[in-house]
Amino acid sequence: MASFNLPFFIDGTLNGQRYADFLSQQLPNLLEEVPLETRLQMWYQHGGCPAHNARVARTVLHEMFPEHWIGRGEHISWLARSPDLNPLDFFVGNVKEHCLQ
């Protein structure tokens, strides 16, 4: 995304309500530049943070990305430590390990 609104920071501690507010109020603005055809094929992935799994946040995700989001215990379950879903987590770790040798 080539947006001037990135990165987006949330004031205070992230909780379920703040995350739900971000999803419903800020994320649509960040996705405006993405063509509709692309948005219709997008999947939303988030991690195992408690705020991501709060009922209020999951409700918003069900409304915005019906059956197109990846999360713990949902339509597509979150696969923790999966290199397929988190390539950068594994890439950075491997680079760090290589550099420290």
UniProtKB/TrEMBL annotation:
Gene3D superfamilies listed in its UniProt record: Ribonuclease H-like superfamily/Ribonuclease H
Source organism (scientific name): Ooceraea biroi
The organism's taxonomic lineage, starting at the top: Eukaryota, Metazoa, Ecdysozoa, Arthropoda, Hexapoda
GO MF annotations, alphabetized: nucleic acid binding
Protein name: Uncharacterized protein
